Request: fold
Amino acid sequence: MLEWLDNVPYSLLLIAAVFLGLAPFYPEPHLKEKIRMLRNGTLKRPLDIFDLIYHLIPIFLLGVKFLRQNMG
Reply:
């Protein structure tokens, strides 16, 4: 099911994780803002939840690829 992930280079996933994790660069990265909202219990709007998931996808894929190559 995740064989396609084996063909994606680490460099591409790493670049996507850094850019989406830090975007927008000013005034504050969305990921930092959304994690703070989650910690404070103010992450309630569907758009904010989607935004958090969207910015975490490359980091999640990077972790899955790493685990697939080192566990299997």
